[in-house]
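WARN no homologs supplied; continuing
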Amino acid sequence: MKTSIRIFHTNDIHSNGAFLKKLHAYMIREKRPEDLYFDSGDIIDLQSPIVQADAGISETSLLVECGLDGIAVGNGETDLGHAELTALVKHFDCFMSANIGANDGTPVEDLPASRIYERGGIRILVIALSPYYNEHFRSSGYNVFTTMKNLRTVPPEEPFRRELERRKGQYDYCVLLSHSGHLIERELMKRLPVIDLCLGGHSHAVEHYPGYTQSGKGAFLGRITLEIEDGVIREVENLQIDLPEAEDEAFDALYREKAAFADRVLSEELPSLGALSFDPFRESPLINFICDALYDAFDVDLAIMHGGISEGDLTPPVSKKSLLETFPSKLNPAVFPVQ
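OK structure emitted
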């Protein structure tokens, strides 16, 4: 008897509400009980007010409404920090990562390395990886940022192999759900030939070929069709779908609800001592304040910040909303030695 299942895939949505609306309309209409939908991470973007309101819970719930079955922890999610990521993982049972933990090596509580899904008479093992190498394959390329928030990734190959051994005999098909970047993922597929399909992310590439797919920066929906006959599994389709615009009143109502909640939370006034003026071309109190804060928060000899971080003066009343408007680009501090 011949059966088929479809695996849908997205990556790097970065809180793009317009894409989520198109995705929701399509998935509600097209996804069947035997299908699966995975995301390779970075649904979270700290520039989004909806993310800032409750540390990603509302944002992730929008993706879950699209029929999500599993998601890898990307660097967008690690930007939240250890406590917030732990809370997010406890709220949703779809997150996975085999190679991320706290700085002391302890795992993130309730975060599994993998999951097994049974569809079409086969068992599909999905192992997730978070970014460790940078695009030049330099080790620990992201820990310079994440360790300051009590999160660190380790080289992915050994955790992947450990998970394979732990799941030995429990699966028929192996999927790597990765937020590592196309070039890194291509190399991992060579080093780990047991991978039947890699669902990639992080580099915002648009790539699809047998055994691999990555769908840009929330640009396309990947669709891979597997055909199963007499225990043999074949990939018979690997597409990138340019989702059409669609009316979706249910999603619109849900999005308005999340946005209104975010506006209420972020508009609450914060304590402030007064205005901080800004000049992009001269020394200014606002940039000095940021440098002083970084200097006090971390064990460093010097703190530097570029003037382009701000859009203008910071004036009372100050709220999280006004902070986002003044500093629309996320601030990722990094500590490094200067020789």
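The two ends are 67 Å apart (CA to CA).
OK
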